[in-house]
Amino acid sequence: SLDEDTRWLEWVTKQFESIAGEDKEIDLDEFKTALKVKESFFAERFFALFDSDGSGSISLDELLKALNLLIHGSETDKLRFLFQVYDVDGSGSIDPDELKTVLKSCLSESAISLPEEKLDDLTLALFESADKDNSGSITFEELKAELETFPEVMENLTISAANWLKPPDLEENKCKTPRYLTRAYWHNNSRKLLFLCLYALLNVLLFIVAMLKNAHGGPWFMVAKGCGQCLNLNCTFIMVLMLRRCLTWLRATWVVRVLPLDQNILLHQIVGYAILIFTIVHTGAHVMNFARMSQNDGTYQMWEYLLTIRPGIGWVNGTASVTGVVLQILICLMVVCSSTFVRRSGHFEVFYWSHLSYVCVWALLVVHCANFWKWFVVPGVLFLIEKLIGIAVSRMGGLYIVEVNLLPSKVTHLVIKRPPFFHFKPGDYVYINVPVIAKYEWHPFTISSAPEQQDTLWLHVRSMGQWTNRLYEYFRQPESQAMSNKRLTASLRDRHHQKRAQSTICSRTVASNEDDDVELTLYQSSGTRTGSQKPDPVELGDVCLGTRELSAKLSENHRYCNIRCYVDGPFGTPTRQIFASEHAVLIGAGIGITPFASLLQSIMCRYRMRKQNCPNSPSYSWCETIKDNEMKLRKVDFIWINRDQKSFEWFVSLLTKLEMDQADEDPEGRFLEMHMYMTSALSKNDMKAIGLQMALDLLAKKEKRDSITGLRTRTQPGRPDWAKVFQKVSEEKKGKVHVFYCGSPALAKDIKAQCEQFGFNFYKENF
């Protein structure tokens, strides 16, 4: 808008005046510093074009003149500026070497690492497409004609020409109705809001009734008793919200349509804060009452009421005051150690061990309050039964980590031998204990393998805290002490037999045609190719692709082992509802892909089974013709957002296989549609990325493979425009849309707000 352009130019003027010297001009180094440009090539090119008199410095008049041209100039003026950026030697045309220099700088700006030969391919793809007359150089008219074949580039050129140095803090906060007051929010969160209203009403009623019953003790005594009765409810209800097995069972019943079972973690947190508030008010009211009593009768001093059993307050030897003080300290400690800052800052163990004090809290509450046991007995028995079942399940059968892959960004891929009695659904999670890492610690992780994968369980563990880092470092050692030669030999033999058995029952024969030649084009930061091969059997679970020998798989980051572990679970998550939806949108941010890796494998396994029933029908469409009680899905959109290029290596083999399953189908009618986003890459509305994105598009069309990931799906730069993404989903009209998300809580808020606008159901992974 004109207002934003005016504000932006005012900022540029102030920024210039703050760094310009007495001569009122800035040199190249000051230009780079002021604008925080990552790659010097574009800073140097822009500086040279802004420096109209060639003096080696820019005056304010020169800068504003150039920027006004970029903002208010014609389309031709802006295209001319872009052409001059690419025409490094000022010859009036762009030769291949100049184009390669520009693309190399674009790659560096976008944090994309490609080998030299791939950079040559990108350069040739763009150059051959733009050089219409085959003269060996690109003229302005040829570049303009080429850009016009990319409508989104032309549409964003006006924005990108100025936006490249627009500061983040100039983003205007538009006045709009708070999300929590919108009709869409109340409609889409009706179950949760109704439940919270009932919960609040119950607390109010308990508080009032308890106050009226104790009116004889004075106002402070009434408040203390009212809070005490609310604490009876909340200190037992918070336990109910953590009955994971009961909640998993209830998710399979009609109750899930009435109660907000998927919000149990949020409700657990809300009840926890309510307990803290009630405890503080309860303690404060008793302190004020004790102060009144010590002044009126003088029998006991204030400190005696609080810290001794002499006044005889309480039903167990007068210990109410002493246990109350201890409870106050423990509850405050638990709440502080449960804060996001503690859990997300690599100190999960602090949260874990402090939370175990709940046993002491419940024991003290039974001693502290005469009636608490009446509230506690039923939930307490259920909780005890769940714990005993968990201990029994985790100790049954011999569970071993039989294979480990160390993936980029410090992700540990664990392959665990699956016990025969272990049944789970896609998206479920388990608690795992690895004694060689920490004997008494249990940590929750989503199962990333499909239920149809009978022999093993997959867990992908991102190193974000002490335990996960110790796990990664343990397996990064050249040879762990836990792996003896005999165990390794036995494990290798066992794995070999398993793979041979899988190969005999594999339902799909790999034909030696062009579609089955999978090239995983992944690149390390050093620019060397790490994969140009068929996916390995282990990487694709029960999918038989390739026949590489097991001995070849032993490497520094990939090994077989035989390490004892214990698993408690599985426990259900909101993603269990995916098979009851018609159009599912799966959004994974970073390692948040893990529940969807399991889901996608399970979905495509069912897809292959049903497709085999009708292999000779060219017009066959499974998602339209097969609708059974287990799965009503007609369309799945999978969106994976990663910060860097290397993170795509975690599941690229799986995604390649999923693409192969649909290789013979019309792209417009595919049941599963994948969308990849790389946030470190400059978006298409950035002037510095226009040439690179055009080259990547052209080469992807030519090779039918993305240069960044090696998938057929083109990796999009930047972040998704959720309004456009959901608008497209809405226009497809495949049925009721359910959006499932796993990843950063901050991103979850943005996605949920958009879902509310479109009337989509939103589910967030929590445990």
TrEMBL record:
The answer to keyword Transmembrane applying to this record is: yes
Which ranges carry the EF-hand domain? 38-73, 74-109, 118-153
Indicate how the chain sits in the lipid bilayer.
Multi-pass membrane protein
Q: What is its main location?
A: membrane
Under the heading SMART domains, the entry gives:
EFh
Q: Enumerate the InterPro entries for this protein.
A: Cyt_b245_heavy_chain, EF-hand-dom_pair, EF_Hand_1_Ca_BS, EF_hand_dom, FAD-bd_8, FAD-bd_FR_type, Fe3_Rdtase_TM_dom, Fe_red_NAD-bd_6
Location of this chain's protein in the cell: Membrane
Q: What is this protein called?
A: NADPH oxidase 5
Keywords annotated in UniProt:
Calcium, FAD, Flavoprotein, Membrane, Metal-binding, NADP, Oxidoreductase, Transmembrane, Transmembrane helix
GO CC term (a single one): NADPH oxidase complex
Is-annotated flag, keyword Transmembrane helix? yes
Q: Name the Gene Ontology biological process terms.
A: defense response; superoxide anion generation
An MF annotation (GO) of this entry: calcium ion binding
**Membrane-crossing residue ranges in chain numbering:** 193-212, 270-291, 312-336, 356-385
Residues covered by the FAD-binding FR-type domain: 394-502
> Catalysed reaction per UniProt?
NADPH + 2 O2 = 2 superoxide + NADP(+) + H(+)
